[in-house]
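Q: I'm writing up a methods section and want to include an example of the input and output format. Could you take the sequence below and give the corresponding predicted C-alpha cells, formatted cleanly so I can copy it straight into the document?
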Amino acid sequence: MITFWNKKRCTMGGQRGFTLIELMIVVAIIGILAAIAVPLYANMQARARIAKAQADIRGMASAVSAWGAHMGTLPSVLDLLTAIATSPQNITAGPFMAAIPTPPSTAWGSAYFYAANANGTFTISAAGDGATVSAP
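A: Here is the clean output for your methods example:
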C-alpha cells in the first residue's frame, strides 16, 4: 500500500501544469461559446426594445381614448394627456398620463408619432430595430 502512494505521488509530482495544446483548446471553446452568445444577446435586446415600444403605445392609446371620452374630441397633441382637462360640461379630469414615454433608443427617433384623423380615429406609431409598431 505504501508503494502505491509513493508511486502515485511521483507521477503526479512530475506534472507541472497544462500543455500549450490544452490551453489552446480551452481558449477555442470559450471563443466558440462567445461567438454563439453575442448575437443571441443582441437579438434579445432588439426584441426588448420592440416590446417596450408596444407597451408604451398601448398605454398612450388608452390615455388618448380616455381623454377623448372625457372631452368629446381627440387631443391634437400627446402633451395634452399630461395636463388637467376641463370638458365642455365644465368637468375637470386628468392628467391621463404622468409623462409621455420616450422611445426605447435613439434608433427609434426622439418621440412617438401621433396623428388624429378627421373621422374620429387616431394612430400612434414608432419605427426602429427593423420593426414598425402602431396602435390602434
